[in-house]
Design a protein that fits this description.
Layout (H helix, E strand, L loop, with lengths): L1 H7 L2 H26 L2 H29 L52 H25 L23 H4 L7 H8 L4 H5 L8 E8 L8 E8 L4 E7 L5 H8 L5 E8 L2 E12 L14 E12 L8 E7 L8 H11 L10
Helix pairs in contact: 2-3, 2-4
């Protein structure tokens, strides 16, 4: 298709176009071959330069023919005519009354000079200028385009699950928060700065409207999670009737470490550390998974859902695959931003 379109162009447009494109591509490929030491680029560059040299020769030959047009001379030219035509003799021997000149042979018409196309040079100059600009753009364009490393990655957003049907436990819970609301409250622009990694952007987000385990689906427990390159932050709200004091007593029977009670925004709270669970899922033909293993250590802050500690709590956990943990002040800063987005629990 491209070759057909090129054949439709006038000679003085097509040839300069091919010369410009061939030279630009050839020089560019040779530059890449020298800079990157790429043999394939050198071969292609040589082909384009040889093709360009042939087109230049064709144009020069055409210009010479236009300057020195060849005249097609006839092989048998007209003979010389006598200076004075011979008089005709009368048949009776006397001179004719009037001398009739001999009919001269009609001369061959002179070859017409080739018509000059006054627009040929204009077309050629316009074509060279146009495609010269295009070649310059192709050549210099990459220098003005931002590199891949300079492109600022946009943080991910939380998914909208407005049409998701909530479990019955949410219907029986006064003013419960949903997983999507928790995700929006957690996925703040300053979350990475609160974690001590201000240069990072959120890479993953997730949320769900689950119910607490071992409760038969009667306790609402929405949760959300935001992942960064360094840390992962998980937040959940459990609408049970367990007070913070009862929660701390249960920790004594578990594997929690570094337990510390405090208050956050006037609410009872507790800080502790515990290992996450690591589950491997095999997606092969058997579809079986490996045993549950111990994951990296996580630091968790549990805060009561109201100032009077009527039951229920919000947990904020942070962990990393490397095992590193942020300071406790980072969890307190996150809690102070997230808790105002969760309605306080009313009296039963």
């Amino acid at each position: 298709m491209l070759g057909f379109l090129l054949r439709l162009l006038p000679f003085w447009v097509r040839e300069p176009l091919l010369i410009v494109l061939g030279s630009v591509l050839g020089v560019r490929l040779m530059y890449l071959a020298v800079h990157d030491q790429h043999l394939a680029a050198a071969g292609l560059g040589t082909v384009f330069l040889v093709f360009t040299a042939i087109r230049v020769y064709v144009v020069i030959h055409a210009l010479r023919e236009r300057r020195n047009p060849r005249t097609a001379a006839s092989a048998d030219g007209p003979g010389e005519l006598p200076a004075h035509p011979a008089p005709q003799v009368h048949p009776q021997g006397g001179p004719a009354a009037q001398a009739q000149p001999a009919a001269a042979a009609a001369p061959h018409p002179a070859p017409k000079p080739p018509k000059k196309d006054h627009n040929a040079w204009g077309q050629a100059i316009a074509a060279v200028a146009l495609f010269g600009v295009l070649g310059a753009v192709l050549w210099l364009g990459p220098n003005f385009m931002p590199a891949d490393d300079d492109v600022v990655a946009q943080p991910v957003s939380c998914s909208e699950d407005a049409h998701e049907k909530l479990p019955k436990a949410f219907q029986h819970t006064p003013r419960p928060v949903t997983g999507d609301q928790l995700c929006k409250a957690l996925n703040r622009p300053d979350l990475a700065q609160l974690l001590g990694t201000p240069g990072e952007k959120a890479t993953t987000t997730s949320s769900s409207n689950n119910t607490a385990a071992l409760t038969g689906g009667k306790i609402a427990e929405p949760e959300a999670e935001v992942g960064f390159d360094t840390y992962t932050v998980h937040v959940s709200a459990t609408y049970d009737h367990l007070s913070t004091d009862q929660y701390v007593k249960l920790m004594k029977y578990g594997n929690e470490q570094d337990i510390k009670t405090l208050k956050v925004l006037g609410r009872p709270a507790v800080l502790f550390s515990d290992h996450t669970m690591k589950i491997e899922i095999n997606l092969g033909s058997s579809g079986s998974g490996g045993p549950v293993q111990q994951g990296p250590l996580a630091r968790t802050l549990a805060v009561a859902l109201d100032r009077h500690d009527r039951g229920g709590y919000c947990e904020i956990s942070v962990w990393s695959t490397s095992g590193a943990l942020p300071t406790d002040s980072a969890l307190l800063g996150i809690a102070e931003k997230v808790l105002p987005k969760i309605p306080e629990r009313t009296a039963r």
